[in-house]
Design brief:
alpha/beta, 2 domains, 11% strand, elongated
């Protein structure tokens, strides 16, 4: 190894720089081809780019890798593997995908290297400031260490927060609707509107033909088995059901989530698939979203009027709501800066402006279509106040005679996505009434939906 370092040091800097530029470009291109978002492309390229830089310009760096780093990654590997195995034991329908373990470790290594670069940049900045101040680096070591820690934490926290919010490991959904619920189904695959490969289930109505399909969009990082009861209710009401895995879930492509900003494109891909492949069974297309799936359903319906009615069950907020939960833990002067920085990093990671996702504005675009919002009053995942705000924003834009005001149905004692379990008959009746008001072109049917607490 020593001979290799000496040989590399004799190569002219210009040649080494050219080799590094080519290697960096190749790594970024490789990341862009394999990844499905700017963040995936960046983190896939970080490790080879920095390894190439160290080999060409700092070969002695490999000798400086402290044993504690090796111990750190050993502990990390055990922790990640233990988490995945524990999750798989608790949720038999979502076993661990073994390819996710090395991928997760690689991703965490990339994060570690980025934070290392932030630390090196802070150290260089402090040395520069010390020289400019005339102290020639002879500052109080404890003071320098404290400033270094504060700056690294301030710069790393928004990056780490945003990165962990938009990335998550994937679990394989091996649920079989035939075994669990006696429901016939067909695995399907189609492209989202931005060309990602999306998988899902097509569950036809068994007893009779139907010209209507409901796109049922479940919550993130959950097996579709958790929402089979919703599919059963929809089937009993007379509709076919298409249940897609959103990007980054199940067997769909990607490892990032955007809290609805991009997932709406997956729902639009499902709509396009239905119209192209199953036109006779999707003369009318409706969408039901649950949890984070509700934000995806809302985003898709606001962009395409071929989605004729919308049900939002336990609607969650966007990325800003997720960041707000963390920012609220900080003192007043810091929470605003942390929030803005985290959302800016999340937007860059996803390649879209997550702050532009305004559920209220999207509700306004649905003023000509019926919307039913279902909210459990004991929901701690998606607080009832969020559903009430959605309903209020929607009603503010439906003052015209042709406008259809959204309907809010509050269900006491129901937690997250539990309304269908506590009020199955009324749940099916209200949802069917909403959809039939479109099929029969009879808006007056909406008066039969009781918006009061059950």
């Amino acid at each position: 190894m020593e001979n290799v370092r000496k040989e590399i040091s004799t190569v002219p800097v210009a040649i080494r720089a050219g080799v590094f530029a080519a290697a960096a470009a190749g790594s970024l291109a490789w990341g862009a081809v394999i990844g499905t978002s700017p963040s995936e492309a960046f983190h896939l390229a970080v490790v080879p780019v920095l390894a190439c830089w160290a080999l060409l310009f700092r070969p002695s760096l490999f000798r400086q890798i402290a044993p504690r780093h090796l111990v750190y990654f050993t502990v990390l590997a055990v922790a990640v593997g233990g988490y995945l195995l524990s999750f798989a034991r608790l949720t038999s329908q979502a076993p661990v995908s073994w390819t996710e373990i090395p991928l997760a470790l690689y991703f965490l290594l990339a994060l570690h290297l980025v934070v290392y670069l932030i630390d090196r940049a802070v150290v260089a900045l402090l040395k520069l400031v010390a020289r400019e101040a005339g102290s020639r680096g002879r500052l109080v070591p404890a003071g320098l260490a404290a400033v270094r820690i504060v700056l690294v934490a301030a710069l790393s926290a928004p990056y780490l927060t945003a990165t962990f919010l938009v990335h998550w490991v994937k679990f394989a959904d091996v649920t079989d609707p035939r075994e669990l619920a006696g429901m016939e189904y067909e695995p399907v695959r189609f492209d989202s509107s931005d060309a990602l490969s999306i998988t899902g289930w097509w569950i036809p109505r068994r007893k009779a033909a139907s010209d209507s399909t409901v796109i049922l969009v479940g919550g993130r990082c959950q097996s579709k088995a958790n929402f089979l009861v919703h599919a059963q209710v929809l089937g009993e009401a007379g509709y076919h059901v298409l249940m897609p895995d959103l990007r980054g879930s199940g067997r769909s492509q990607g490892h990032t989530r955007s809290f609805g900003s991009l997932e709406g494109r997956d729902v639009l891909g499902a709509l396009r698939y239905l119209k192209a492949v199953r036109p006779s069974q999707s003369r009318h297309v409706f969408v039901m979203g649950i949890g984070e799936g509700a934000t995806a359903a809302l985003a898709a319906a606001s962009r395409d009027k071929r989605i004729e009615a919308v049900v939002l069950d336990s609607p969650c907020g966007g990325a800003d709501a997720a960041v707000d939960q963390l920012a609220g833990l900080l003192p007043g002067p810091l929470d605003g800066a942390f929030r803005r920085a985290s959302l800016a990093v999340a937007s860059a990671a996803l390649g879209c402006d997550v702050t532009s996702f305004d559920a209220g504005d999207m509700m306004a675009r649905l003023h000509d279509r019926p919307v039913l919002i279902i909210q459990g009053l004991d929901d701690t995942v998606s607080p009832p106040g969020r559903a009430e705000e959605l309903c209020r924003r929607g009603k503010a834009f439906t003052d015209s005679p042709a406008g259809l005001k959204p309907i809010l149905w509050r269900v006491p004692l129901a937690g997250y996505a539990q309304s269908v379990l506590l009020t199955r008959f009324h749940y099916g009746r209200n949802v069917r009434t909403l959809f039939e008001s479109v099929r029969r072109d009879s808006p007056e049917l909406l008066r039969l939906i009781d918006p009061e607490e059950f």
